[in-house]
Design brief:
Layout (H helix, E strand, L loop, with lengths): L1 H13 L13 H13 L4 H13 L2 H13 L6 H10 L3 H14 L4 H11 L4 H14 L5 H7 L5 H10 L6 H13 L3 H30 L1
Helix pairs in contact: 1-3, 2-3, 2-4, 3-4, 4-6, 5-6, 6-7, 6-8, 7-8, 8-10, 10-12, 11-12
Length: 218
């Protein structure tokens, strides 16, 4: 069914102009109505096409709402829209929601990883933070350097997001970086989350070692 929907949308979009007049959903209320329709029938091809079109060509608020809806329903067909909007959209909120959508799709291919990496270095702090959250969940080694670089951010919320994103990365550089930051960062909130992550990593290592011993003895 999903392949049929993708094929339908690809063919239809080919004939659709990208001009403003072709935007089907022009108001936030229109997107909300589309959300209700998709809740009843997630495979409604016509409504999905309307939302995709709105995500590309709608006004700032409509684009954001449409991207949020596509991310909420985890629509694989919106993958290319998430990729595009995450770096090209002029509105920070749309970029932020597009990265969130990629995270929900759990896309770990080079294209998605590249967009998350670019989000981490975005000019907007909120996009950076969302990019770090997604990077933490992806646990992709290609993103480790970008996360480590964020530990030196002047913004404490970015540093805190970077610390949290590192908690499950299995790399010696992570422990060295966290210990160094714990001894140099002057912000109480940052130091607190560093200590929590360090403790979490120690407990996780202990648990893994105990499991390995049990496997050796059985």
């Amino acid at each position: 069914m999903k392949k049929n929907i993708i094929a339908f949308i690809f063919i239809t979009i080919f004939f659709i102009s990208c001009s403003e007049k072709d935007v089907t959903l022009r108001r936030l209320d229109d997107v909300h109505k589309a959300e209700k329709k998709l809740a009843k029938n997630p495979d409604n091809e016509e409504v999905i096409l309307e939302v995709l079109n709105a995500a590309q060509n709608g006004g700032r608020e409509v684009r954001a709402e449409a991207i949020w809806l596509l991310g909420k329903i985890e629509a694989d067909i919106a993958y290319s829209d998430f990729l595009r909007a995450s770096v090209e959209d002029p509105d920070f909120n749309v970029r932020c929601l597009a990265i969130l959508g990629l995270g929900r799709l759990d896309a770990k291919n080079p294209e998605a990883i590249d967009r998350v990496k670019r989000a981490i270095s975005d000019t907007d702090l909120q996009v950076q933070i969302e990019g770090l959250k997604v990077a933490g969940r992806m646990n992709a080694k290609e993103l480790l350097n970008s996360i480590l670089d964020s530990l030196s951010s002047k913004n404490k919320w970015v540093r805190m997001a970077a610390v949290e994103a590192l908690k499950d990365y299995n790399d010696k550089r992570v422990d060295r970086s966290l210990n160094l930051l714990a001894s140099t960062d002057t912000d109480y909130a940052v130091k607190s989350i560093i200590n929590q992550v360090i403790e979490y990593r120690k407990n996780k290592t202990t648990e893994n070692n105990e499991e390995e011993k049990k496997e050796e003895t059985t």
